[in-house]
Design a protein that fits this description.
Blueprint (H helix, E strand, L loop, with lengths): L3 H19 L8 H14 L5 E10 L1 H9 L12 E4 L12 E6 L3 E4 L18 E3 L11 E3 L13 E6 L13 H5 L5 H10 L1
Antiparallel strand pairs: 1-2, 1-3, 1-7, 3-4, 4-5, 6-7
């Protein structure tokens, strides 16, 4: 029987493609539904899993190099690029945050990380990531890491930055989303398929 960590890495390998291929989820930014699926899959394997609201940013190597250079904004090269979700805009219809699967004692997984990719900006993010570090409290420093698996493309990889959202109505607004309220009611086949492949 695989260890929990190996099982989680396998879930991350197969789940994003199964979710996308199912056709049940119609939009690219589906972190709430993907998290609900991820939690259901983990429960099937006896792995404790919880939803966690986070702020997330992905940046390409050019952006990282500029940030580390100490140069001013006027010297930022055009090819330096980042994209993120910060849970700050309260004027939008719906939720503007990001949801991941928290795995107490094991880390967390993001089954919708690929929506951060911007290929035209040399920013490629895997469709799912398992991070074997726990998200500390919202007052802790952000978790910065570079996904270590190569997806076969000969490009520079992304640097990911995750930070637990501070508690409040904005960071908890995902709970009122139809994707969360509906849960996995119409995603049973998706959960079954991921379990069979993982």
């Amino acid at each position: 029987m695989p260890s929990k960590t190996k099982r989680l890495r396998r879930i991350v390998e197969v789940a994003p493609a199964v979710i996308a291929d199912s056709g049940v989820i119609k939009h690219r930014n589906h972190c709430i539904a993907a998290t609900a699926v991820g939690i259901a899959v983990c429960e099937r394997f006896g792995i404790e899993a919880l939803p966690a609201s986070v702020e997330v940013m992905a940046m390409n190597d050019e952006m990282l190099a500029w940030l580390e250079s100490g140069l001013g904004i006027e010297d930022r090269p055009d090819e330096a690029w980042s994209v993120g979700v910060a849970n700050e805009n309260t004027h939008t219809a719906g939720w503007d945050g990001h949801l991941v699967v928290e795995l107490p004692g094991l880390g967390f997984m993001d089954l919708n990380s690929g929506h951060m990719s911007r290929p035209l900006k040399n920013l490629f993010v895997r469709d799912g990531v398992f991070v074997p570090y726990e998200l500390d409290g919202f007052e802790s420093p952000p978790l910065v890491f570079r996904p270590d698996e190569d997806d076969g493309r000969r490009v520079k990889s992304a640097v990911m930055v995750y930070h637990r959202s501070s508690p409040g109505a904005v960071s908890e607004a995902w709970r009122t989303s139809p994707d969360w309220i509906r849960g996995t009611a119409n995603l049973g086949n998706v959960v079954d398929q991921i379990v069979s492949l993982a």
